[in-house]
Amino acid sequence: MKNRHIASFKVSAIGLGCMNLSHAYGTPVSAEQAERVLLTALDQGVTFFDTAALYGFGANETLLGKVLKPHRQKFTLASKCGMQGVDPGDGKLVRVIDGRPETIKKTCEDALRRLQTDVIDLYYLHRWDKKVPIEDSVGALSDLVRQGKIQAVGLSEVSAQTLRIAHAVHPIAAVQTEYSLWTRNPEIALLQACRELGSAFVAFSPVARGFLCGEPIDIERLDAKDIRRSMPRFAPDNFAANQKLLPGYHALAREAACSPAQLALAWLLHKADHIIPIPGTTSVAHLCDDLGAVDVNLDAALLMRLEALINQNTVAGNRYNAQANSEVDTEVFGV
To answer: I need a surface site. Which of 48, 203, 230, 242 has the fewest CB within 10 A?
Structure first.
């Protein structure tokens, strides 16, 4: 496995986003299957694992703590605060964005316990709580660094401007945002800001929530709790339009002698050396296929054709619905 860097950490060029194992795409996989995926990733050279308090409302952190504790010295551990499950009083947890310093510190204590570790290597603010100055939330994370509970501070789904404000309070080791061929917003300003400040860029949903994986998605058969049901790009009309991009995309993958998923990941790895994609999967076979992207070489001509085929002008539909869009702080093309 090739390596890249986040602050002082040397991590695998492709990490593992662990959300899929517990959250967001329907019924979670069995504990046994989740363990197989995590241990196979470790065995295949993955040294960067990403989780969050939100995922399964703590269940994903608990899973990683149980499975990976014996191997803790072999990998860099990232988790997130600022968005978690809260019981409003009826016993049913709801997702809440809360970036108050006291909440961040409490969430970190809970995460350390669930993850069965003394320190979290990289701790992100999952969403900027716009009711709280970003300086206050990052200040709380800075306190956690001084206390030795986390080693580095990250942000998720923020604009270049917010990154710069936060970085003035405490160095931001990494920014995590959706980035793939069909979500190009980071190219507006954030990628360059990360490079200038020395922040790694961690790309989530790098294979476009499965769209670029090569296996057909039947939107009518998605689980009732699958988050793609609320995403405009998977709405019937938009999805039908987007599917017209796939024959050309699959042809480019064949030309590059790689799988469709590998093509999407290799594109990210070729874009800049401070980009680290973190695909998620519940399948050992898909995991191994994803990791093969580190050995895929793409020439400049193929990269140009790929970017001309799939970009912000050729994809139908926004990445988020109106509610989700209101919760992020990112630049958007055409606005």
So the answer is: 230
The number of domains in the chain is 1
Does a structural domain hold residue 241? no
251-282 as b/e, with b when 16 or more CB fall inside 10 Å? ebbeebebbbbbbbbbbbbbbeebbbbbbbbb
**pLDDT string in tens for the chain (335-residue length):** 999 999 999 999 999 999 999 999 999 999 999 999 999 999 999 999 999 999 999 999 999 999 999 999 999 999 999 999 999 888 889 999 999 999 999 999 999 999 999 999 999 999 999 999 999 999 999 999 999 999 999 999 999 999 999 999 999 999 999 999 999 999 999 999 999 999 999 999 999 999 999 999 999 999 999 999 999 999 999 999 999 999 999 999 999 999 999 999 999 999 999 999 999 999 999 999 999 999 999 999 999 999 999 999 999 999 999 999 999 999 999 75
Domain that holds residue 187: 3-211+271-296
Q: Say if 312 falls within a structural domain.
A: no
**Structural domain includes residue 328:** no
| Global model pTM greater than 0.90 | yes
Give the CA count within 13 Å in the CB-facing half-sphere of 63: 30
Q: Which among 25, 55, 124, 179 is annotated as catalytic?
A: 55
229, part of any domain: no
Cα–Cα distance, 240 to 171 (Å, whole number): 43
Q: Does 320 participate in catalysis according to the annotation?
A: no
